[in-house]
Design goal:
single chain, alpha/beta, 7-stranded mixed sheet
Length: 180
């Protein structure tokens, strides 16, 4: 997408979110073709506890639970109808036993068990989550964001690096990316 500017989109989506009752992030599902980039960045494996903050309809956590030998996939979502859709998706995929569903505020949910976190949120929300990520995640935990960076953190890797919507995935590692 020529002229793609995630910061411009961030400002636009904040206005859209305000128009829809103050929800901080509108639901925009991760596209199927983008999943490969996300999973390449996450590098999920045996023993991982994977959290998707703002998991929406559960597409990413359900697919992670289906494809990888992870210990647990945790879907955190504030909207009840989306968490119910995610639960149904997991049941249909046969992975409901590997996915935990948390209907709640991602700023209040304990994420200290996570070894890998995925966030498709806005830059402003990523920035607001920084203190929580730094406080609750252990050194070495991976944080992966789609399209929108975490201001002030240095990605250890960028997957995709292409201009356009849902084309760039940023990989951060606690203790390395957030070093001041």
């Amino acid at each position: 997408m020529e002229g793609f500017n995630p910061d411009g989109i961030d400002r636009e989506l904040r206005w859209i979110a305000l128009a829809f009752g103050g929800v901080s992030v509108p639901f925009v599902p991760t596209r199927d073709e983008t999943l490969e980039l996300v999973f390449e960045a996450l590098q999920l494996g045996e023993g991982d506890v994977f959290y998707d903050l703002g998991c929406g309809n559960g597409k990413v956590v359900v697919e992670a639970a289906r494809r990888f030998p992870i210990e647990k996939a945790v879907c955190v979502e504030a909207r009840r109808e989306l968490i119910e859709e995610a639960r149904e998706r997991a049941i249909n995929a046969g992975v409901a036993d590997k996915v935990e569903f948390i209907h709640g505020d991602m700023f209040k949910v304990d994420i200290s068990r996570a070894t890998a976190v995925y966030m498709y949120l806005l830059t402003s929300v990523n920035e607001a989550l920084k203190p929580k990520l730094e406080k609750e995640l252990r050194p070495g935990a991976r944080v992966v964001t789609l399209d929108f960076q975490i201001p002030g953190w240095r990605p250890v890797r960028i997957v995709g690096e292409r201009a356009g919507w849902q084309k760039t995935v940023y990989v951060y590692v606690i203790g390395e990316s957030n070093r001041r």
